[in-house]
Amino acid sequence: MSAGERAVGIRVDLKLPPQHVAWPVLRDASLEADRADAFTSLWFFDHLHSVSSGPNPSPEPGPCFEGWSILAGLATVTDKIRLGLMVSAVPYRHPGVLANIVATIDVMSGGRVDLGLGAGNNLEEVTAYGINMGPPGERIAALDEACTVLRALLGPDDVVSFAGAHFSLEGARCLPKPVQTRVPFFIGGKGERKTLPLVARHGDGWNYSNGTPEEFAAKLAVLRASCEAFGREPGAVMPSVQVRALPGELHTVAANAQGYIAAGARHIILYTPADPASVEPLARIADELRAHGAAL
C-alpha cells in the first residue's frame, strides 16, 4: 500500500491485456508502471487465446501471453509494484498447482502477489483445450473449494489434506511459503445468490466489471449484507471496479471512475492497451482520482 493510498483511501491500479502486443512493449509498459508512484498493482488477464473483448479486442486469432508466466517474468525485473491476474480462472489450474505457482512468484517478487480468482467463463478456450469447466453452478462450487484449498496451502500449515466434491488433497505441501503472511484474494463476479456470498466468505477484494455505477452500488449492498451474515465487517472486502482507459478517450476516464467511487468503489483498475507512453497520463488520472476520493 502506497503512502498516497493510505492518505486518501482510494487505490488505483493498472491492467494491461497481454494480447496482440510484442513482449518488449508489454515489459517496458510494466517497467514504466513500476517506476511511477501512482499505481499499487499491475494486472493482466488470464486467457489461453486472444479474446474479442477488452480495450484492444481481437476479432481474429492472435498472439496472447500466458498470465502467470508474465508475472514470473516481471517479478524479477520490477521493484515495487504488486502483480496479479484479474482474474485467474480456476478451471485452468488445480488449486494445489496454483498455490505453488503463487508461492513461487511471491518469493521471486519479495511478497508482491495479489491473487485474482474467478470461476471461468470462456467456453471457446475450455472446448479447445478439453478443460472440464461445467455449468455455472458447478463452477461457483469449484471456486469456493479452490479458495479454501488455496488459503490452506498458502497459510502456515506444512501439510494440507482436503476432501471436496471438486478437489481433494492428501498430505499436500506448498513450500516455500509465500513471503506474505496472507496473500490477498480478489474475487470477480456479480451473482447475488452464490458469488457474492462466496466473496464475503473468502475475499479481501471484490472485482466488478462491465456494468454501471447503479448496478455496482446494488451489488455492493448485497456483498456488505453477506459480510455481516458471515460475521465480517461490511467494509472488510475492498470494492474494486475495472474502468476502460482507451488512448483516444482519456478525457472521459476520470469522470467514469468517479461515478463508481461515488457508488462505493475504493479500488479502481484502469484497463488500457499496453503502451509505455500511456503510463504517465494514466498516472496523472490516478492522482486525480485519489484527490477526488480525499474530498468526499
Element order, helices and strands?
A: HEHEHEEHEHHEEEHEHEHEH
Beta-strand content bin: 15-25%
User: What structural class is derived from the secondary structure elements?
Assistant: alpha/beta
Please work out how many helical segments DSSP would assign.
10
Across the major sheet, the strand order is 3-2-1-11-10-9-8-5-4
Textual characterization of the structure:
Helix 3 links the parallel strand 2 and strand 3 (82-85). Residues 1-8 have low confidence and may be disordered. This protein has helices at 3-8, 23-35, 67-75, 95-109, 123-129, 136-153, 195-202, 213-229, 253-262, 279-295, and strands at residues 11-15, 41-44, 82-85, 88-89, 115-118, 160-163, 168-172, 185-188, 205-208, 238-244, 267-271. Helices cover 41% and strands 16% of the residues. The chain starts with a helix and ends with a helix. Helix 9 (253-262) runs parallel beside helix 10. It is of the alpha/beta class and 296 residues long. The chain contains ten helices and eleven strands. The strands form two sheets. A nine-stranded parallel beta sheet has the order 3-2-1-11-10-9-8-5-4. It has a two-stranded antiparallel sheet with strand order 6-7.
